[in-house]
Write a structure and sequence with these properties.
By secondary structure, the protein is α+β, with helices and mostly antiparallel strands. The protein has 2 domains: 56 residues, Vcp-like ATPase, Chain A, domain 2 (Roll), CATH 3.10.330; 131 residues, 3-Layer(aba) Sandwich (Rossmann fold). Helix content is 20%, strand content 24%. The chain has 4 helices and 11 strands. The strands form 3 sheets. Strands 9-8-7-11-10 form a 5-stranded mixed β-sheet, covered by helices on one side. The longest helix is centred in the middle third of the chain and has 15 residues.
């Protein structure tokens, strides 16, 4: 049996037509929809998967959102990277537990969250975003998903440059293309681009052992 739904956490309502609504539960809060209102207090304390009816008779099922649900529904400023692209990016750039990652352009934070989950507690992610409005949105979305900024993540406003060792530059037009040669610096037009993903197995800590 799942842990009861609690105030403060995000849940996903799914209606009879499979339309989804991402909601943060609040004590004495109310979810309003075209099918009527539903008190959050009726949801809090219920198990995941509970079916509830709004004042207008609309049936909603409550689930904890998957990361894919969150990425599609979270507030955004910059264009978000969708789940269908996040998977190939992680696979073809060979992101693994314990890796060190440099992301140029935090955007709305979807890829940042995916990178943090992929590298795990033993890894490190540094994400640069020079536009303050995008950085604030990314911070809010990362905190909304994890509950706080993970210790392994550094979100910074500094302009990014490529590490000089073992680094590949990925353009978003083909982020899943085969690995190219290591380059000392990123091409100038890529440096401030949301489309540039920088990846290195040992970019920040050359003492870190190589991936098995």
């Amino acid at each position: 049996m799942s842990i009861p739904l609690e105030a403060g956490e995000r849940i996903l309502f799914v209606d009879a037509r499979d339309r989804t609504y991402l909601v943060r539960l609040q004590t004495k809060g109310t979810f309003h929809t075209h099918g009527g209102a539903l008190s959050h207090d009726l949801v809090i304390g219920q198990p995941e998967g509970v079916r509830l009816e709004t004042a207008g008779g609309m049936v909603l099922t409550a689930f904890r959102p998957r990361f894919a649900d969150y990425a599609l529904k979270m507030p955004r400023g910059a264009q978000v990277i969708y789940p269908k692209d996040l998977g190939p990016i992680l696979v073809y750039t060979d992101i693994y537990p314990g890796a060190s990652i440099l992301e140029a352009g935090s955007g709305s934070g979807a890829l940042t969250i995916a990178l943090c989950r992929a590298v795990g507690p033993g890894g490190r992610v540094v994400s640069y975003e020079v536009r303050s409005e995008h950085r604030e949105r990314a911070v809010a979305n990362v905190e909304g998903f994890f509950g706080k900024i993970p210790d392994l993540l550094e979100l910074t406003a500094r302009s990014s440059t490529c590490p000089s060792r073992g680094t590949c530059c990925r353009r978003s037009a083909r982020p899943w293309s085969p690995a190219g040669s290591s380059v000392p610096t990123c091409p100038p037009r890529c440096r401030s681009s949301r489309s540039c993903l920088l990846w290195s197995r040992r970019a920040f800590d050359t003492s870190r052992p190589s991936r098995p």
